[in-house]
Design a protein that fits this description.
By secondary structure, the chain is mainly alpha-helical. Helix content is about 70%, strand content about 0%.
């Protein structure tokens, strides 16, 4: 694998698919794809972030325990993820 290339995981494909669904006006399918992506890879930072951002923009996510838990998940695994992405 060349330097800078990335392995595309199932979580990545599902998270990207969710964004596509959202752009096509299918938020229910987007939510399902993000949920499966997060279940498939509980450390998938893009899926956690994108789904959280979607919920926040839809005024369903407030700074509460759920948001704090997501934030802790990201910061807990960030060093591992950022090192593997290099």
């Amino acid at each position: 694998m060349s330097k800078g290339s990335r392995v595309i995981t199932r979580g990545s494909r599902l998270s990207n698919r969710a964004l596509s669904y959202l752009e096509r006006g299918k938020p229910e399918l987007a939510e399902q794809a993000w949920q499966v992506a997060r279940q498939t890879d509980t450390r998938h930072i893009e899926a956690i972030y994108n789904y959280g951002l979607y919920e926040w923009r839809a005024a369903r996510l407030f700074v509460d325990r759920a948001a704090t838990a997501r934030s802790q998940t990201i910061t807990q695994w960030w060093p591992t993820w950022s090192q593997s992405a290099c």
